[in-house]
Structures are given as C-alpha cells and as structure tokens.
Amino acid sequence: MDPVGFLKVSAFGIEEQRVRVTIYFADPPEAWAALGHDYGGVVHVTTWSVPDALTVPVSALFRKGDQWAVFADENGRAKVVPVSIGRRNNRQAEVLAGLGAGDRVVLHPSGRVTHRGRIAGRRGGGKLVVNET
C-alpha cells in the first residue's frame, strides 16, 4: 500500500481522496485468473475487530458538555446516561463504560426528548427504535 493518499478530481468535478492498494489473493490463481487485466472491484477493509464488543448506534449519541451521552430507556422514561466511547465508524460506536448489554437507547433523539421524559418503544425493520412521546 502506498504510504499516502492523493487527490483525484472525478469526471463530475468532485475531489476524491484515493490511495493505491496492492491486493494478494488467498485463493489459488485458478479461482481469480478470469478477472483479467485492469479489472475493477470494491474492497471492504477491516481495520479493527472485537468479537464481543458492546456497541451502540452512533445515531443514539449526543454531546453533553465535553462527553458523549445517550438517552437510555428506564421504565418508559428517558434517562441521560454518560458513556465512554472507544472506536467508532459511521454506524456503530464501541461502548467502554456507561451501558450494559441489553440496554435500550433512543435513536435519533430530537430536542423534545428530555431527562425523565416519557418515551415509547416501537419495532421497525427488525431493529428496536425508541421514539419520544
């Protein structure tokens, strides 16, 4: 892999950051030889992984002072819970402290959600979503 990225302007005039990568296939050449010269593809790179990490959707996080917090569901009421966050991406954040496995949190809390305010849960798309009421 090249040590630094470079700027490329796309055909649409959008500036993109790129980095050159050399990929070595684990499969034998017979499995990938049909790809041909200059074949393009999409690669997903895992830079960090923990099998049993406690995570929370980043859509539940908000700043409270100089720390991260979530609204946790405590018997139908929103409770502000400060959390310590480790690694994160654009979807999930590792929770180092503040929440436990199975805790329910408010996703996308609006300004109407307040500490000790009533909330009601609903299921949508197989994921638990807690909405303010």
Quote the CATH topology of the domain at 55-132. conserved putative lor/sdh protein from methanococcus maripaludis s2 fold
Which quaternary structure do these chains form? Answer: single chain
Q: For the CA atoms, what is the radius of gyration? A: 21 Å
How would you write the strand order of the largest sheet?
A: 3-7-6-5-4
Low-confidence stretches: 125-133
Roughly how many Å apart are the termini?
Answer: 51 Å
Query: Can you count the beta strands?
Result: 9
What is the CATH first-level class name of the domain at 55-132? Mainly Beta
Q: How many alpha or pi helices?
A: 1
What is the overall shape? elongated
Q: Please write the string of helix (H) and strand (E) elements.
A: EEHEEEEEEE
State which percent range the strand residues make up.
35-45%
